[in-house]
Amino acid sequence: MQHTIANAAHARAIPKSPTGVQGLDEITNGGLPKGRATLVCGGAGSGKTLLATSFLINGARCFGEPGVLVTFEENGDELASDVASLGFDLPGLIDEGKLFVDYVRVERSEIEETGEYDLEGLFVRLDHAIRSTDAKRIVLDTIESLFAGLANASILRAELRRLFRWLKDKGITAVITAERGEGTLTRQGLEEYVSDAVILLDHRVTEQVSTRRLRVVKYRGSHHGTNEYPFLIDRHGLSVLPVTSLGLTHHAPVERLSSGVRQLDEMLGGQGYYRGSTVLVSGTAGTGKTSLTAHFTDAACRRGERVLYFLFEESPLQLMRNMRSIGIDLQPWVDKGLLNFQAYRPSRAGLEAHLAQMYQNVRDFKPSVTVVDALTNLLTAGTANDVRAMLMRVIDYLKVNEVTGFFTSLTPGKNESEETEAGVSSLMDTWIVLTIQEIDRQRHREIRVLKSRGMAHSNRVHEFELTDRGLRLLDDTGPGIRATGGG
Amino acid sequence: MTTSAPDVPPPPAQSAPPAGDNGPHDDSTERYILRLYVAGMTSRSARAVENVRTFCEKHLEGRYDLQVIDVYQQPALAKSEQLIAAPTLIKKLPLPLRRLIGDMSNEDRVLVGLDLVPRT
């Protein structure tokens, strides 16, 4: 029997029921197994209920699949107010007949066991709820509560086994939530009964930074991502961030974008950056990273493109004031809605939260250029490895959407040290390094293009200065050109 | 301490017939409102009905109101009555509300469940 099912599953992809939870459907290649039960387990406060409820609400709202929510822990009002804070209108869906909520109250002190029984009372309830909404989805949150209310565990186990079989026979897609156990997936060993798919949620706090993670432990008959994926709960609900959804299959646009500095464009094969590429500008403090960024931002806005600017060190007003001193006025672009600043301190929230925040901003604002100034500030929110992993996901996301990514990086210390950026530079298509040399008590600013994939770029070091009309390269000896390979 | 002063008027509780709720002897006058929910006419249901009827006649003669309901016939009641198990006997009155689940074959548990003997 099991053998046949496994073979059938291999023969063709099993039908899926989309969760509508951003990212989760990507990891699971389309959602939860349709007509089967999925176990969602995790500790207290790990987001089980929210995941389960989102599955149900999205089903009712977006996929034409009415649902039944059987809650053992919160009554309908509590639940409605919980999800209302995430923008879900539970009472509205109930009124429309798309959702049925049944709060199953199990009060140990009220119950006396006087002989043989079964859980037919619960079956009748579920059956009634399913019929009255013609439900295609059901959530049992958290059915383990029955173990606290009923003393006879052997009856309970036999009945749960019967219940899950019954749900399967009905062809309803079920989500069963369960508390994480010590050394087991669930406290009551529910994984023994519900084994089509198992999702594990985790909420960790490391160095006062909280991160939530999701892992698909098991998915019978389907491919699925096996990593731990960070997820976020915010005012838009729950979203999972796939580590990389890209597989390096994105387009490689050939269109070029001016850096905003003509002479720099010349250094970059005469035409500037590629659209949809990633640019890193690194240098010690005061070398002009932000000025170069402002040029690029200004140039993009002049073309009528939208720029999303993550600013981690100063306020937008301060930045704009400083840039006016080199003749760049960004204020009009802000006024026109072409330039959007997101200014905050990265240490405020965990890295995952940042990543999710950035995704959301990009999704909402739909920029053609995204600036992160400075990348190095993110290091305060996580370890170098984590930051690199996060950055990879940001870049993937930008590339898929053909958004040009512009990143600045502060090189610590007096001298340039290319190793510090080595971690992230491999993710960058173009790497520009700014330095300051002190010669005869004079500071000389220098710029060079360390690499730029897919174009013949200058291999010379050029001196430049910051004037009241912007960044200007000094030596007019002409750009030295060398051809480079594609990467 | 059984003596009482003859000139003191008798306390009203002694003369008011059914309202008294203090003292265990008053229990014998309380009415029991019971609902027995079964799921279909299975042998277990039949056994529960039989056991509850016998029990009531023996312990609550003349002061109980028992109704037997098949939840298959009225499924909406399963939600409003918070049913999980079947059979379930609900003691609506006197308070506190109790739910007895099972075929009621264990008379001692039924006595405890209906608060006719103290809980241990």
What can you see in these coordinates?
- The complex is a heterodimer of chains A (487) and B (120).
- Chain A is built from 15 helices and 25 strands.
- Chain A is an alpha/beta fold and 487 residues long.
- Chain A folds into two domains: 2-240, P-loop containing nucleotide triphosphate hydrolases (Rossmann fold); 256-482, 3-Layer(aba) Sandwich (Rossmann fold), CATH 3.40.50.
- Chain A is elongated, with a radius of gyration of 28 Å.
- Residues 1-11 and 478-487 of chain A have low confidence and may be disordered.
- Chain B has one domain: Glutaredoxin, CATH 3.40.30.
- Chain B contains four helices and four strands, in the order αβαβαββα.
- The longest helix of chain B is centred in the middle third of the chain and has 17 residues, at 43-59.
- Chain B is globular.
- The chains are: A alpha/beta (487), B alpha+beta (120).
- At the A-B interface, strand 6 and helix 6 of A face helix 2, helix 3, strand 4 and helix 4 of B.
Name the descriptors.
heterodimer, A: 487 residues, alpha/beta, Rossmann fold, nine-stranded mixed beta sheet, 15 helices, 31% helix, disordered C terminus, B: 120 residues, alpha+beta, Glutaredoxin, globular
- CATH-level-4 superfamily name of the largest domain in chain A: P-loop containing nucleotide triphosphate hydrolases
Total beta strand runs of chain B = 4
Largest sheet of chain A: 9 strands, mixed
Could you state the CATH homologous superfamily of chain B? Glutaredoxin
Tell me the overall shape of chain A. elongated
What's the helix-strand series of chain B?
HEHEHEEH
Which CATH architecture of chain B is right? 3-Layer(aba) Sandwich
Task: Please tell me how large the radius of gyration of chain A is.
Answer: 28 Å
How would a crystallographer describe the biggest sheet of chain B?
4 strands, mixed
* Share of β-strand residues of chain A: 25-35%
Shape of chain B: globular
Count up the domains of chain A.
2
Instruction: Measure the end-to-end span of chain B.
Output: 30 Å
Share of helix among residues of chain B?
A: 25-40%
Query: Unreliable stretches of chain A, pLDDT < 50, 5 or more residues?
Result: 1-11, 478-487
Termini distance of chain A?
A: 52 Å
Return the structural class of chain A. alpha/beta
Question: Total number of β-strand segments of chain A?
Answer: 25
Helix content of chain A: 25-40%
Largest protein-protein interface:
A-B, 26 and 35 residues
